[in-house]
Amino acid sequence: MAAPPQSQSKQYDTIAAAYSSSNLTDLPGEIITANLLRRGLGDVQDLTILDLACGSGLYSRMVIELGARTVTAVDISSEMLRIGQSIEDSAARDSDTTAAPDGTSADGRTGYRIVYHQADCSQPLDHLGLKPGSFDLVTANWLFNYASNRTELANMWRNVSRYLAPGGRFVGVGELHSLEPALNRSEWAGIRVSVAGETDDATKVHTELLSEPPVAFDSFILKCADWYRDVPLEVGMEDVAFTPPGIEEVPEHCRDVEEWREVLVVPYCLLYTATKT
Ligand SMILES: C[S@@+](CC[C@H](N)C(=O)[O-])C[C@H]1O[C@@H](n2cnc3c(N)ncnc32)[C@H](O)[C@@H]1O
């Protein structure tokens, strides 16, 4: 049987400190991922953004740096959120650049442009009190690979669709849709994936990020690759596309280096994009 989503909270509570203090963002695969996401996001100036599975806020901070107005950031792991909030707190202490008139943290403090909430994004988020249709852009980076079946994937996409304004964009990065390429990625990129189990709908995979310290976690690749495209269409999204990174994601001075080109042969991630109808 698939592990219940609640176990995702405990899983990331355990690895949160290593995840957030590691040199993860220096791994070639993660550099490419960040560049792909940045290109996909395009102009986010003054946008109101919802970040599902925000973790400790890596990409919430990225979109703020790119000019977004506010980010509502949701994750299941209290420990990932605690680290994200402490980064906000120390930034707020050091300068007033995180202050925004309408940013209010979960415990009622004002002045934060990133506001963190704890919730399971594979369940309805009604209890958070967010206004449906009120976000210009929703992002979710490495969320959908925690769906262990079609229902959980559909619930995640329902949250995306419910909170996006009509015409609003979804932009996020995520895991590949089939097992074989995921097992065969260049370790030089910084990732090693192995099979950890089977459910009716999914292969459970164990992922090791080869950072310092290393970080490891379990997630899922659904057996029916079509679900990744069909499900968002069923819940009110259109223009659903999955784009692998290209040479433009490789830092300019590395584009002739063989290892970097190898990383592109089997993608490290996909850019997921869609629009709310
Ligand atoms: C690989 S981390 C990515 C964090 C962040 N988006 C980033 O890219 O740095 C995956 C995150 O997904 C969160 N997560 C997993 N399942 C979740 C769920 N059902 N609801 C909300 N968050 C979930 C984990 O707690 C973890 O923080």
From TrEMBL:
The protein's name is: Methyltransferase type 11 domain-containing protein
Query: Which residues span the membrane?
Result: none
Q: Report any Pfam family annotated for this entry.
A: Methyltransf_11
Molecular-function annotations in GO: S-adenosylmethionine-dependent methyltransferase activity
- Annotated stretches, region: Disordered: 87-106
Name the CDD domains for this protein.
AdoMet_MTases
Signal sequence span is none
Please give the PANTHER family that the UniProt record associates with this protein.
METHYLTRANSFERASE
Q: Where does the source fall among the domains of life?
A: Eukaryota
Q: Where is the Methyltransferase type domain?
A: 50-171
